[in-house]
Amino acid sequence: MGVGHGMALLYWGLKCHHLSPSSSLEARQFLLDKILSSYEKSLSLLNWGAWVADQPKPTVGIVDSTHSFAISSPRSEVSDQDCKEECGRDVYKKRKTQSRWTEQVKVCSGTGLEGPLDDGFSWRKYGQKDILGANFPRGYYRCTHRHSQGCLATKQVQRSDEDRSIFEVTYRGRHTCNQASPSPVASPSPKNDFSKQSKYHCKQQQQNQDKPKPTEDIFVNFGSDCVQVKNEELGSKDDIFPSFSFPCTSFGNGDEENNIFTESMMENSFLGSFSPTFISPATSESNYFSMSACPLNSFAIGYQNVQTLGV
DNA sequence: CCGATTTGACCCGT
DNA sequence: ACGGGTCAAATCGG
């Protein structure tokens, strides 16, 4: 309720104020401060403070004029795990306490793409396993910048048994790296960089999910993907975070300039590193965040039409 | 040559 | 003992 209100307010603010790249930096900062303050109030209302209280306050900064802003709330877990990784193998214990959430990525069949879409981050595959009871193997990915920047974000990709067009992407940890450079959506010339960068993703999809498709189709066909985000296993079993969603039409007003919220947040941090904190750090499995971002024109990888699919 | 992927072995929690 | 997750050597490919 509270967070939903906060999110509604956030969206309202962005929409009503027509936050655009041409807006002054001060205006945007002011609005974001307002929004965040409301959001934080909502958080405290929710009494999920136990989790939030330890967290450094989320900071919002407008990075540059390409209307990308970074929202981060660094956690001690990062340095903690860094140490543990260096000092010994304690990743297994740490795993339990890491933030984790799942996106169900639906790739519409017959569109030329059969595989999990690129989420704007660069991943390196480090393993694959056959999972008991699953028809398809699970792929394990970690951030490409794990060593160069100590980024500990990982994800698992598994194709759904019931619907081959659905991929369950489970993210763990947040990106602490500077992912602006390799990200196809964040680059000044997305299309060129994307086709180049998606090389490995494309290949990986072919090898991993046995459905080779032409690279050329990807950029277009991502537009029909659906992503559902849900949070998992973050400790709390309390139903304090009812699911909520934006109506699909809300974002897609066709005005690119007004899509700062969707394109910026999603491409930079929303799905990649910010969402676990922002969305629902303490939800039970029955509660999940659902987010619509239909015609995300600039959001090249095309997260779209997220709905409460129900799990 | 360098970075990504593959894949069997290994580790850990249950 | 078993299953899930990670490691790392071998391999691939630009």
TrEMBL record:
Low complexity biased stretches: 180-190
The record's section on SUPFAM superfamilies has: WRKY DNA-binding domain (SSF118290)
Sorted keywords for this record are: DNA-binding, Nucleus, Transcription, Transcription regulation
Q: Which residues form the WRKY domain?
A: 112-180
Task: Name its cellular compartments.
Answer: Nucleus
- Please give the residue ranges the record annotates as the region Disordered: 176-215
Q: Name one GO cellular component term.
A: nucleus
> Which GO MF terms does the UniProt record name?
DNA-binding transcription factor activity; transcription cis-regulatory region binding
Where does the signal peptide begin and end? none
GO BP term, example: response to ozone
* Primary localization class, coarse: nucleus
Q: Name one Pfam family in it.
A: WRKY
- Family as reported in the entry's similarity comment: Belongs to the WRKY group III family.
Name this protein carries in UniProt: WRKY TRANSCRIPTION FACTOR 41-RELATED
